[in-house]
Amino acid sequence: MSTQGQMPVLEHLRELRRRLLIAAVAVMVGAIIGFIFRDRLLDLIVDPYERATGQIGLAFFEVGEAFSVSMKVALFGGIVLAAPVWLYQIWAFVTPALSNREKRWVIPIIFTLVILFIAGVSFAYWTMERALKWLLGFGGDRLTPVIGVSRFLNFAFRYLLVFGVAFLFPVFVFTAGAVGAVSSNQLKKGRRWAILVIVVVGAILTPTGDPLTLILLSTPLYFLYEVTIWLVRFVLKR
Predict the structure, then answer these.
(1) Residue 14's pLDDT band (boundaries 50, 70, 90)?
(2) Which helix (H) or strand (E) segment is 181 a member of?
(3) 16, 85, 181 from 20: Cα distances, Å
(4) Contact 120, 170 (CB under 8 A)
(5) Among 136, 153, 192, which Cα is nearest to 58's?
(6) Contact call for residues 156 and 104 (beta carbons, < 8 A)
(7) CA gyration radius for the chain?
(8) For 125, what's the count of Cα atoms within 13 Å in the CB-facing half-sphere?
């Protein structure tokens, strides 16, 4: 009986390993492309810092740091380029027991996941200069920012990816509505809890936890929550 009980778990673990492998290969392929265009990607990522500070370029302090920076930029590019693949693998793993009727939602949902991820990263990039000006502004006239490229990239990558991943949450709320786990009325009544969860999770995930970044993340997420309520109510009814 123990062997039979363990089989489903082992099958899930094999499935998880297979999907992780596919996602990893996709990210590696994307990283190779990212490495080829690493200089353009680095210019793009550093540009908000240069506009915010008026400084040109970032310093590195170790002999091998420039190479490690190239690898980080390439990996980030790979994650973004491979987003359709790894998002599909995540979705396919967490929803294996869909009925034929529910499977018709798979393609639209995967497409929506990709669009929302790109929208989150794009929104974060658009707000990054403002966030940097606000944060660095606390230095006043006496303190001059001297930030190494590795430290800045750690901040930038986390800032961009946190927004990208956070923007995916409406899809899972909509899916919960699609399978009957929640209704639009329950989502309406849960607005206060939704705001609390958004703010708490945002405070944990944001790179600095400062109020401005928290507001920049929480505001669009709550807007997306309201849109999801409307979709659950009207789209699923049809």
Answers:
(1) confident
(2) none
(3) 6, 10, 27
(4) no
(5) 153
(6) no
(7) 21
(8) 13
Q: Three-state SS for 168? A: coil
* Residue 134 neighbours by CB under 8 Å, 6+ apart: 210, 212
Report the C-alpha gap between 26 and 126 in whole angstroms.
Answer: 27
Burial of 172 (0-12, 13-18, 19+ CB in 10 A): middle
224 three-state secondary structure = helix
pLDDT tens-digit profile of 154-189? 999 999 999 999 999 888 888 788 777 788 888 888
Task: Report how far residue 12's alpha carbon sits from residue 188's, in angstroms, rounded to the nearest whole number.
Answer: 35
Q: Is the pTM of this model over 0.70?
A: yes
Tokens representing 57 are 């370029």
Q: Residue type at 125?
A: Y
H/E run at residue 95: none
| β-strand partners of 59 | 148
DSSP secondary structure letter of residue 97: T
> Could you tell me what percent of the chain has a pLDDT over 70?
92
3-class secondary structure, 59 = strand
**Smallest Cα–Cα separation from 233: which of 191, 183, 199, 195?**
183
* DSSP tag of 141: T
Place of tokens 């786990």: 181
In the chain, the N- to C-terminal Cα span, in Å, equals 45
Exposure class string for 73-103: b at 16+ Cβ within 10 A, else e = bbbbbbbbbbbebbbbbbbeeeeeeeeeeee
